[in-house]
Specification:
The chain is an alpha/beta fold. The protein contains 10 helices and 15 strands. Helix 1 packs across helix 8, helix 3 runs parallel beside helix 4 and helix 5 crosses helix 6.
Length: 314
């Protein structure tokens, strides 16, 4: 079973509006509302791939109940912990005509110390029945910056694999606890290491730095250009696929995490872990709804993914 953690979930509303601009009045040609947040995208994709999935995090108010109900209806086990604050709403305005995406992200509720300690107690129980734990996205106000370290510590103590997908200070603190896998994109990692990536050597050096912190399986995602990964053995590979006509890229990174989590849960070898992650990320770009794939598209894209060796880390 996969446990997908979303500490700051949201109702994700996506509006399709051509020629969107500031100070205008618009009527969307399409709209969707989804139980969202990065971890819920992970949970949804893993479920589509046929895995048993449990979703957890913190929810409150009417928006929280919407999320709980939608998660249950999708066949995912909902283990969200209730809080007093109101769960947030996030808006994404897709302008397909001009190929732009505009996001408005609410910060979310403020969580009390009592509430997050209750979550940690319940998390201990949830981990027992899972093979892989994923934690994605930002933290709500009130949680300490190093909160993910607590989740990683609990997971590792029980011998389970942890995939961390976050950024900024949350990422800097989280990697101190040495999760099994991380997947920052190149811009997120550049802000952490203090320099932009421009050469093959830059990527390899960054992967080596992550490996030296104790991370078994670091991955740097490159958007449409694929990803670069260092395997637990120290081998480094670059993965890439064909150009795609994109409908919506939102949720593709989460879909990548889902594919990797599913493959790890199935004890796949490292190359197949990344290939399934990439195939899920690519499939997600073909849907208007965020965090959505189909098994048929994933299988189709799996066949198109190529990879090349970039050597072995010293």
């Amino acid at each position: 079973m996969i446990l997908a953690v979303t500490m700051n979930p949201a109702i994700d509303k996506v509006y399709a509006i051509d020629d969107f601009h500031v100070s205008g009045v618009f009527r969307p040609k399409a709209m969707t509302a989804t139980a969202g947040g990065k971890g819920l995208n992970v949970a949804r994709v893993a479920k589509i791939l046929g895995e048993q999935v449990m979703a957890t995090g913190l929810i409150g108010g009417a928006t929280g109940q919407f999320i709980h109900k939608q998660v249950q209806e999708s066949g995912i086990i909902s283990k969200f912990v209730p809080i007093e604050g109101e769960t947030r709403i996030c808006i994404n305005i897709m302008d397909e005509k001009n190929v732009t995406s505009t996001e408005v992200l609410e910060p979310g509720p403020t969580v009390s110390e009592r509430e997050y300690k209750t979550f940690l107690e319940r998390f201990e129980e949830m981990v027992e029945g899972c093979d892989v734990v994923t934690a994605s996205g930002s933290l709500p106000q009130g949680l300490p910056t190093d909160f993910y370290r607590s989740l990683i510590r609990i997971t590792k103590r029980r011998g389970k694999k942890f995939i961390l997908d976050t950024s900024g200070d949350y990422f800097k603190e989280g990697i101190k606890e040495r999760p099994f896998m991380v997947k920052p994109n190149q811009d997120e990692l550049a802000r952490v290491v203090g320099y932009a990536f421009s050469t093959k050597e830059d990527y390899v050096a960054a992967l080596k730095m992550l490996k030296e912190t104790g991370i078994d399986f670091p991955v740097i995602t490159l958007g449409a250009k694929g990803c670069v990964a260092a395997f637990p053995t120290g081998e480094v590979y670059r993965f890439f696929g064909p150009p795609l006509k994109v409908v919506n890229t939102v949720g593709s990174g989460d879909s990548f995490v889902a594919g990797c989590a599913v493959a790890l849960s199935r004890d796949a070898d490292p190359i197949d872990v990344i290939k399934l992650g990439m195939a899920c990320g690519m499939a997600n770009t073909q849907f208007f709804k965020t965090g959505m794939v189909s098994v048929e598209l994933v299988e189709k894209f799996l066949e198109s993914i190529r990879y090349e060796s970039w050597g072995v880390l010293d």
